[in-house]
Write a structure and sequence with these properties.
The complex is a heterodimer. In chain A, helix 3 crosses helix 4, helix 6 packs across helix 8 and helix 7 packs across helix 8. In chain A, 53% of the residues lie in helices and 17% in strands. In chain A, strand 2 and strand 3 form a beta hairpin. In chain A, 24% of the residues are buried. Chain A is of the alpha+beta class. Chain A starts with a helix and ends with a strand. Chain B is mainly α. Chain B is built from ten helices and no strands. In chain B, helix 9 crosses helix 10. The N terminus of chain B is likely disordered. The chains are: A alpha+beta, B mainly alpha.
Chain lengths: 303, 186
């Protein structure tokens, strides 16, 4: 039994690899939900993860061949990075110069520079220098306080910028999600229009006469999508499982419906199915069962 | 070239970039730079623009690494999208449209392998050879999907082929590339 399971798992992995979905994944052209599906498959099947890595190498090599790589640009890149205001400027002084409260500053600057000199002279000729030293120290302290104040202001400015950047990223993320949803809708439309996809309407059984769900099955690619149109809410510790009844009349699992996928018109990708005369959905314990629980079959539909 | 333990390395790279380690960025530049540059060049067809955009790409990678999320896919794919989007945006700029008028075409790519040069050329297989081995329809499709980032549906629409054909044809095309690369490794 174990060998059969292993064999069946490997068949699934091979079929998945042969489908060409990984090429699309590596190219970065799959919508978010399909990306998740690929990653789930890669987590479950090491041969799929391996194939992804091989594909990346092939792609990377093909792209690299397009032109000679300018391998001298790294320093220039670092320069450009430093130009963009994200890292705090090492010298607060240049920033300070821009601000309007600056008028006293030019006067203070030479004083500040003189302060260390004054301190040295202090030891040599104390009496003569003392008032000058005191003045220099006072000015130095004032200058330091001003710097602190301005630095704080500048830092707040930086935080504001960082916050705006973050907001921009959030907007970008929302836009991406909207685009992903749009693409998902387009995919659904494609599904309806693509004659390779058979629509199987599954009707409610005795335990739930008004229940309904739909399966889209592409016999050629073996892809299966489940649309959970009207399935009763899940009790604790259970989830729905999709079955395909093969030509010998045996139910073959087509995967679990993730509990969070409850939108009626969601197109949920399920496991690949090569042959079916009917589809059914049953309520099973979390993680699924090897065969459907007979009195927990909610919807059935024939091809 | 990306080494074989990429998955583990990807996590290390992401962490290194988030920690603002310049040596990590250097590694990324050395290993992923050629591919990213190739994609950019394929789209803009100008060495100067490609160099500029490549640098922009790395600046963006550096500054936006915190928005990279493993759940969205591989690091490589994320960087590829940044490079690709910059290049495509460039082609919509006025500057690009002006430059397009100059004959800066495929010839530039084909003559890149300099004959009689003592330098060791890393790629033994010429791009010309590849191009001649792939069927036109395979090459077109790889172009659209890999370089231009067309989705399956968009590519199907553009080439007027069924949706399912896109996947099988891309798989075949990459299969051909792999065969060609393998024979070269020998």
């Amino acid at each position: 039994m174990e060998n059969l399971e292993n064999y069946s798992r490997q068949m699934q992995a091979d079929a998945y690899i042969r489908s060409g979905v990984l090429e699309l994944y590596v190219s970065g052209v799959l919508p978010a939900d399909q990306v998740q599906e690929v990653e789930a498959m890669a987590a479950r099947h090491p041969e799929i993860r391996e194939e992804i890595e091989k594909l990346e190498k092939v792609y990377s090599r093909y792209a690299g061949m397009q032109a000679d790589f300018p391998d001298h640009l790294f320093d220039s890149i670092l320069e450009r990075i430093e130009k963009v205001p994200q890292v705090p400027v090492a010298e607060p002084q240049p920033v300070v110069k821009k601000l309007p409260e600056q008028k006293p500053k030019p006067v203070k600057e030479p004083e500040k520079k003189e302060a260390p000199v004054q301190v040295k002279m202090e030891t040599a000729a104390p009496g003569f220098m003392r008032p000058m030293l005191a003045a220099a120290v006072v000015l130095f302290v004032l200058s330091a306080l001003l710097n602190l104040y301005l630095f704080d202001k500048w830092q707040r400015g930086e935080l504001a910028i960082a916050k705006l950047e973050q907001e921009k990223l959030t907007w970008n993320e929302q836009l991406r999600q909207a685009e992903a949803t749009h693409k998902a809708s387009q995919d659904m439309l494609t599904m309806y229009e693509d004659t390779n996809y058979r629509r199987v309407m599954m009707k409610g059984q005795a335990i739930a006469p008004t229940a309904q769900a739909m399966v889209f099955w592409n016999k050629k690619s073996k892809k299966v999508y489940l649309m959970p149109k009207n399935l009763p809410p899940l009790p604790e510790g259970k989830q729905y499982q999709l079955w395909a009844v093969n030509m010998e009349g045996e139910p073959v699992s087509a995967g679990m419906l993730p509990p969070e996928k409850t939108t009626p018109d969601a197109l949920v990708p399920m496991s690949s199915i090569s042959e079916a005369q009917a589809f059914a959905v049953s309520l099973e314990p979390l993680g699924g069962s090897a065969t459907p629980t007979n009195d927990a079959v909610y919807v059935v539909g024939g091809i | 070239m990306i080494s074989s333990s990429v998955t583990l390395q990807e996590e290390e790279l992401v962490q290194g970039l988030k920690n603002r380690q310049q040596d990590t960025l250097r590694y990324v530049y050395d290993n992923y730079g050629p591919a990213l540059h190739g994609v950019i060049f394929h789209i803009v067809r100008s060495p100067e623009m490609a160099e500029d955009l490549l640098q922009e790409t790395f600046v963006k990678i550096w500054h936006n690494i915190n928005s990279y999320d493993r759940a969205k896919g591989r690091l490589y794919t994320w960087m590829l999208n940044i490079a690709r989007n910059l290049a495509i945006d460039k082609t919509r700029s006025a500057e690009f449209k002006q430059a397009e008028k100059t004959e800066n075409t495929l010839n530039a790519v084909y003559t890149r392998k300099i004959a009689g040069d003592e330098e060791i050329i890393p790629e033994h297989i010429d791009l010309k050879v590849i191009v001649s081995h792939l069927r036109k329809e395979q090459r077109e499709l790889v172009d659209l999907i890999y370089f231009y980032g067309y989705t399956q549906a968009e590519a199907a629409e553009k080439l007027k082929i069924p949706l399912g054909t896109v996947k099988t044809r891309v798989r075949q095309a990459i299969g051909e590339l792999r065969k060609l690369f393998q024979t070269d490794a020998g």
